[in-house]
Amino acid sequence: MTTPPHPAAVLAVDVRKSYGKGETAVTALAGVSLEVPRGQMLAVMGPSGSGKSTLMHCLAGLDTVDTGSIEIGGTQVVGLGDKQLTALRRDRVGFVFQQFNLLPTLTAGENILLPLDIAGKKPDKAWYDEVVGAVGLADRLSHRPAELSGGQQQRVACARALVTKPDVVFADEPTGNLDSRSGAEVLSFLQASARDKGQTVVIVTHDPVAAGYADKVVFLADGLIVDHMDAPTSEKVLERMKRFEASA
Amino acid sequence: MLRATWRGLLSRKLRLLLASLSVLLGISFAAGAYVLTDSIGKVFDNLFATINQGTAVTVQGVSAFGTSGFDGNDREPVPQSVLDDVSKVPGVSSAVGAVGQPTSLILPNGKAFKSAGPPVLGVSYHQDSPQETLTIVRGSAPKGLGQVLVDANTVTKQHLAIGETIGVIGNGPQQKATIVGVARFGSTNSLAGATLLAFDPPSAQQLFGTPGAWDALSISAQPGVSDTVLRDRIAAALPADKYDVLTSAQSAAQQSGDIKKGLSFFNTFLQYFARIALFVGAFLIFNTFSMLVAQRTRELALMRALGASRGQVLRSVLTEAVAVGLVGGLGGLGLGVLLAKGFQALLSAIGIEIPKGPTVVETRTVVYCLVAGVLVTVVAAAIPARRAGRMAPVQALRESGPAESKSLRTRTLVGAVILGLGVVALVGGLAQGAIALVGIGALLSFIGVTVVSPVFTRPVVGLLAAPFARVGVAGRLGRGNAMRNPRRTSTTAAALMIGLALVAAISTLGSSAKKSIVAAVATSLGADYVLHTDQYQPFSPDVAAALSKQPEIGKVAAFTQARAKIGKAGTSSIQGVDPSSLQAVLRLKVLSGDLSGLRDDQLAVSKAEAKNLGAKVGDTIEVSWAKTGTQPMTVGAVFDNNQFAGGYLVTASDYARNVTDKKVVVVAVTAAASTTPAQSRAAIERGLASFPNVQIEDQAEFVKKQGAQIDGILNFITGLLLLSVLIAVLGIINTLALSVIERTRELGLLRAVGLQRRQLKRMIRVESIVIAVFGALLGLVVGVAFGWALVSALHDAGITDFAIPWARIVEVLVIAALGGVLAAALPARRAAKLKVLDAIATD
User: Fold this and answer.
1) CB distance A119–B754 less than 8 Å?
2) Is B748 found in the same domain as B712?
3) In the prediction, which pLDDT does B641 show?
C-alpha cells in the first residue's frame, strides 16, 4: 500500500441518507459521524431497521449518501464514480458477507486471490501463505465452495478480505449463518488480524457475542449513533441492548 | 392451479417471449411460403381463366411421358392437316394454330439477353382473333419476319422502344426484327416474368416452330355450342390417344396447374428450411424450460408440498408450453403474411414477376401455424415438464439453487445409441436415395450429438477458452461459467450446431463438386471449347455446320438432348451425337462394345445406367420416343461414367429420325493441330457471328463458370440457413439472460469485491463466444461428416472427389465468434446494470 499514513482508516462526518421522497421518505442515516482508527476492530450494533447495514454499505462504497463525507484511508469516497468506487472496493476494502461469499466456479484458493486477480496484481506470496495459514485452510485450497462447510466458507471469505491488505475489512453479520463454534473461529480470526496484524475491521452485527470480540462497539438506533462502549464483553453488550429494548 | 400457472406465466413473460420468438421465426417461414404460393396460385387461376375467354377448346399433342410444362416439353406438334380437319367440325367458329417455343433474344446492343430464370418464348400473334391471349397496348400487330411484338414487362426492364431492332434466334440463325408493338398478357404485363416475342403466325412457325405444324390449336365456338359439346365433337373427329382436347376451362386449370406445380417446388423447398428452423427452435424451448424449471425448483416443490399432484405440476408447465406455442404460432402467422411479400420480392429479384393479387391465407395455413407451434413447444418442453413433476416436496426446504449435475454416463450411452441409429438411417437413406430416411437420420444424429456432447463439453470449452483465460480474470471467470453446466452449454451450442452443420455439409458438397469438375474436365473432356447458351437453352443445330467450315477448328460434336422412356429405367435424358467426333471431344473409356462404330438402332450406355438396366452389350432395350413410339435398340457399347456424356447416347441420325426438335444443347469443339488458342477462338467467333446467344468457354472458363454456379447455389442455401443460425443466436441470448438472473448474487459479489462493469461484460462475452464457437465446431465436424457421406453417395452422380471447404470453415468460426459477441450484448448490459446492493440482497 502506498497510501500516505492517516490517523483513521475510516472517517465519516455527518452522513445522511434517506430512501424515497416527500411524505413516504424513510430516513436511514440521520447524521452519523464515526472514526475508526487503524488497527481497531469496531462492532456496529443496533436493532433491525436501525440503519447499521446501510451505514456499512455507505462506508464501503456499495451505496451512495445524500450528504456528508466519508474517507477511507484518507480518500474521499463521496462523489466517486462507479469506476473509482469499484477500484476502491477492490484495492482498499475487504468484504465478508453473511452468506454467499464465494464464487462456486472457483476453488477456495482462487476465491481468496480473486480481488488481486481482478486487479491484475501478483499476490505477495509470503502474505498469502500467512493469511491462508491463519484461517487454517492450507489443505483445502483446491476445494470448491460446495465441498466446504459453512464455517470454512466464511474463513475463506475472511482470507479473501485480508489478502489485499485493505485499509478496512467490512464484515456484515459474518457469523449469522454459522453454528457457535464455527462463528467463534471466524470472529477469533478477525480479532487476531486486528490485534496482531494491525488490520482495521468493521463488523456489523446484532449478536452480542460477536460484538464481544471487538475493541469498541457503537450502538445505532433510528439512523443515529446513540451510544458507544470501549472494551466490550458480550455480557456488557447484552446488558446495554436490553436497556435499548426497554426504552424503545 | 391454473391461476398459479397464469401468474407464473406473466411473471416470466420476457423469458417466455424470447422462447416464443424462436418458434415464431420458424413458423413465419412456413406461413410465408404457404401464403405466397396460395396467393400466386390464386392469381394464376384468375389470369388463365380470363385470358382463355375467347377460346372454347384447345388441342395439343399428348404428353408422351406425362411430364408437365416445367419439366420440359414432351408433346409432339399438331400438323396443319389436323387444323384443317378441326375447322370443318360443326360448331367451330374459327380454329387457329399457335406457336410457343423457347428462343433467344438479342438486345439492340448486340448482346444476348440473359434471363435470371423465366424463359424467353417465341410465340405467334393472331391479329383480330378472339382466341389471342396477347393484347396490344401500344403500336401495331407484327407482320412478316421483320416485325415483332414484345411483352410490356420486357420492354420496360430492358429499356426497349417501338422502332428499335432486336435479334431473335430460334431454329436458325439470328433474325433481325423491328419492335412494332408492346403487348400485355391478359390484364398483366407479363406471364410470370417470361419474355414473349410474338410474330405473325407464319413467321413464328418458320422461326420457332415446326414447318407445317403447330404447338397447339385454339378453337372458338359458334353461338349456342357449349365448350364441352364442341370438345367432344372435335375429340371424335381426331385420332384417339394422340391429342389432348380440352375445354378452355380445363386448359386454364392445366396451365395454372403447371405454374402451381413449379411453385409447389419452391414451397416445399422453403418448408424444409422452416422445419430446420423449427427444429432449432425446439432446442431453444427445451433449454428455456429446463432452466426455468431448475430455477423454480423451490417454487414447484412448494406447490408439491402444499398438495399439488405430480400431474398438476407437470400440466402447469405444459400449459405454459402451450401458451408459448400459441403465441409463437399466431405471431408466426402474422409475420408470415409479411414475409410472403418479402419472398415475392425475392422472386422478383430473380426475374419471376408475379401479377398483383389478394393475399390468400388458407385455413390450412392457420391450422398449420397453430398446430406446429404448439406441437413443437410441447414436445420440446415435455422432458423439463416431467422433471418438474418429479420434484420432491422436500426440495422446497433445501438451501441450494439449481441441482448439481448427476453422472453423465446413462445420458452418454443413450446419446450414443441415438447417434448410432441416426448414422445408420442417414447412410442407409443416402444409399437408397430415400430423402425421408436421410432427413430422419440427420435429425437423430443431431439429437444424438446433442445428448452426447456434455461429456466432452468441459475439456473442449476449457481449451477454446484458454486464450481468453490467459488474458485476464474476466476471461477466466467466463471460461468457468461456460464450463460449469455442460448440459446447458451443450444444448445451447447444439442449436447453433444444426444450422452450421448444414452449412458445412452443403459447403463440403460444393467444394467437392468443384474439385470433381476440375478432375472431370482433366480426365473426361477432350474438347478445347464448350459452346452453349445462357442456362443451357437449346440452340440452332446450324451452329455445328457453321463451325465445321472453319479450318482452324478440328472436330465439332453437337450434343442434342431429349427425353425418352428407356426399358425399365423409366424416362431419362438421351443424347444424340456423332460417334466419330464424340471420342475426340470426350475422353470416354469404353468398357465393352464399340463406341466409335456405334450404328443406327444401337444405344451406348454408361456403366451406372447399364447396372440400372441390368443390361450388357448385345442386349435389346425398348426405347419409347415421343415422336415415333417404342422401338427396340441394341446396346452397342458400355462406357465408364462420364460427367459430360450422361447415361445414354444414340447416333445423330437415329436422334434426328426419332425427335422433332433438332436443337442442340452443347457443341464441343477441338482446335485444329498447330493453331494458337487466339486463332482457334477467333475462328469460333467467326463461326458464331449469326449466333450471339451462344457462349464460348475454354476448359478453364468452363471450370470457373461451373464453380461460380455452384457457389451461387451454395450462397442461396446458406442464406436460407441463416434463419436457423439466427434462432440459435437467440438461444444463446436466452441462455445468457437466464444465467445472469440465476447468478445475480454472484455478479453482485464480483462487483462488491471490485470487478469493474467493463470486466463483467467481458466475462459474459467470453462465455458467449465460447458457447458459439463450441457450437460452430460441433457443427463443422458433424457437417463435414455429413458432407463426406453425401459426397460418397453421389459418387456415381459425378461427385468423385472429396474436398474440405477450409475457407468456409474459417468464415463460419469467425462469424460464430461475432455472433457470440452480438448475443452477449444484451445480457451483459443487463448484468452490468445490476445494482451491487440489490444483487447481494437477492434471495
Assistant:
1) yes
2) yes
3) 83
